[in-house]
Amino acid sequence: MPERYYRELLRYFTRRAGNGDTAADVVQEAYSRVLALQSTGKPVFEPRALLYQTARNVLTNQALRRAAEVRMLDTLALVHCDSAPSVEREVSARQQLHRLLALLQRMPRKRRDAFILVRVHGMSHAQTATHMEISTKAVERHITRALLDCAGYTSARD
Predict the structure, then answer these.
(1) What confidence category does residue 4 fall into, taking pLDDT thresholds of 50, 70 and 90?
(2) Better-predicted residue by pLDDT, 105 or 152
(3) Is the pTM of this model over 0.85?
(4) How many helices (H) and strands (E) does the chain have?
(5) Shortest CA distance to 131 belongs to which of 145, 146, 114?
(6) Residue 83 has pLDDT above 60, yes or no
(7) Exposure pattern of 14-48 as b/e (b: 16+ CB <10 Å)?
(8) What is the DSSP-derived secondary structure letter of residue 84?
(9) Average confidence (pLDDT) over 115-142
(10) How far is the C-alpha of 95 from the C-alpha of 76, rounded, in Å?
(11) Quick one: which H or E segment has residue 33?
(12) Domains of the chain by start residue, with CATH
């Protein structure tokens, strides 16, 4: 694999990611994946293009993963958040996760599904409506009720 692309990729992805360490990780992962592909015997005709595309995919996946983590942390904050030292914070986070899972299990199926699709998977209300084959308004109602459930408000109409 031509290492001559390394510095070029590193400069490009440092600008894209805004962070040299992240760019180095992305480029290293791209090289690793392309080398793994080559070791299977498949020919790589355009290594530079493949490295760029692979690195773009890695960077996109990292961004999606971070966004999902942020959404999950935001969702956990709905269950209650304590400002505690780090060991206690980890225990607290686990307790919050267990409370959230218990809340999700008690929710009606459609409400739970809509909540997970929007808050965890990051789908829009319209995408969720299409996926669940219900109206966007119904998704909005399910999300509102799920958020109220998470906040500890109960509804007499469930």
Answers:
(1) confident
(2) 105
(3) no
(4) 7, 0
(5) 114
(6) no
(7) beebeeeeebbbbbebbbebbeeeeeeeeeeeebe
(8) -
(9) 92
(10) 10
(11) helix 20-39
(12) 4-67 (no CATH), 80-151 (1.10.10.10)
